[in-house]
Amino acid sequence: MRELVMSAPGKNALGHELMEWMLGQLDAAGAAPILLRGAGDVFSAGLNLKEVASLDRPGMEHFLQTLERLVERLYVHPAPVVACVNGHAIAGGCVLALCADYRVAVDRPEVRIGLNEVALGLPFPPKVLTVVRRRVPARALERVVLGAALHPPRIALELGLVDEVSADAPELARARVVALADHPAETYAATKRALRGAALTLSSEDEHRFRHELVPAWCAPEVKERVLGVLTR
User: Which residues of 111-147 are buried (b: 16+ CB within 10 A; e: fewer)?
Assistant: First the structure.
């Protein structure tokens, strides 16, 4: 088992440097099971909004492509991936948790978990939205995505954003990795590939929309102003 610990300023905010580091760690992990958690008492508060607000269009395209690569790599990793949601998992942080095969959240009512992209005026990149559609139960999908609220762990459990809530999330998450890794590795990998392998393949239309609609939307002045407003709260 390989433990992948997200650690960055801004409550483990997902900037380009952290995302590239995580991609390198996944390369190094090969086909080993992964336990994903955040440093300290936070999983990840989402994308690094300071960095997002500073990017021009080419920079934004590269940033979002890196996010999409990371999401895909976690989602299709051939071995078990368990997320220990040890604190806030917001927006991009919640997305990374959703990429895991199993998610155990800490039982602290002050923790918030959810997808607030719509509230920030940020359209979901295509691979990210596909993971959200496939991992959030249909009964809760529109409430989670369009409501754009942040939920305490036990409500997140009801909505299907996590699989378990525990007072000792790290120990339980580790046990879940061990249990999943006890399955025959080749069969687990082949079955996971059959379930997920082609799900994140983009069409040429998706690619065009990403470059010519989504990236400009993230660069829009009113969106950057809204993002900067969040940073001053």
Answer: bbbbbbbebbebbbbbbbebbbeebbeeeebeebbeb
